Amino acid sequence: MKLNEGKIFVFVAAIIIGVLISFNIHLNTATEREYISTKEYQEAYNRRNKLYREISDLKEDYYDNYKKLNSYKDESQNKNDKVIETIMDELESNKTILGYKQVQGEGIEVTITDGFNELNPDIEDPLLRYMRTFHNTDLIQLINELKSSGAEAISINGQRLMNNSEVYCSSAFISINGVKLPAPFYIDVIGSMDKFRTYFGSNDTYIKRLQGRGINVSFEEKEEINIPGYIGELKVNYLINAKNK
To answer: Which family does it belong to (predicted)?
Structure first.
C-alpha cells in the first residue's frame, strides 16, 4: 500500500511539473512575440513591390533576348546577311536613343536672354544685375523641368545635351560639352506638344520665376525641330555591367 501511495504521489507530481513547464513555455512564447510598427510594415511592403518590379523587368529582358537569340538561330547559313542587317538596325536605333544621331520631331524652341536692353545695358546695383543675369544653375533647373515634362531630346545653341554633358559657368559663357556658348541661348526641345503646352501654361514653373526676375524668355511651338547628334566620344572607364559580376 505504501509503495502504491508513493507511485501515485510521483505520478501526480510529474503531472503538476509537466503542466507548470507547459504553462511557462506558453508564457515565454507570448512574451517573445514581436510586433512591427506601421512605418516598418510600409518599408517592407515597398521593398517587396520593388523586388516584384525588378523581377518583372528581368523577365521582360529575358524574353526579349530569348526571342532575338531564337531568331538568330533560326536563320540558315544562307541568311547571314539578314542577321547582320537586324543587328545593324538595332545598333542605329540605340545610337539614336543615346544621342549620337540627328533627330527631328515636334517640339518647342525656347529663347533666353539676360534682362538688359539697349536703353539700359548697364545696371549698377550688383544684386539687381545678378538677378537679371541667366546663370548656369538656371539652365540646369530649366533642363530638369523640361525633362520631367517629357523632353526626349534637347540641344542648346546647337550642342546636343547628353546624359554626361556638363553645364557650368565659364566667365561670360556657359560651357556645354566643352564648348563655350554665349547668350542668347536657343534651347530646342523635342517631345509631346500637349505636355509642353501644359508646362508652359502653368504658373508654378522655373520659367515663370526667370520672367519674374526680369530675364527675357520666349518660346515658339514648331511642328518640326531638328536636333544634331553628339559629335564627341562618350568615354566610359568605370562602369561595369552588374549582371555579369
So the answer is: Belongs to the UPF0749 family.
pLDDT digits 0-9 by tens, 32-58: 556 677 777 778 878 888 887 878 878
Q: Which residues does residue 41 pair with via DSSP β-bridges, in sequence order?
A: none
Q: How many CA atoms lie within 13 A of 120 on its CB side?
A: 10
C-alpha distances (whole Å) from 236 to each of 13, 40, 93, 240, 241 are 78, 39, 20, 9, 12
Residues 6 or more apart whose CB falls under 8 angstroms from that of 134 comprise 112, 113, 114, 183, 185, 210, 215
Strand order in the sheet with 173-176: 167-170, 173-176, 179-181
In whole angstroms, what is the distance from residue 183 CA to residue 236 CA? 31
Nearest 5°: the CA angle 89, 93, 94 is: 120
- Residue 124 CA to residue 120 CA, distance in Å, equals 10
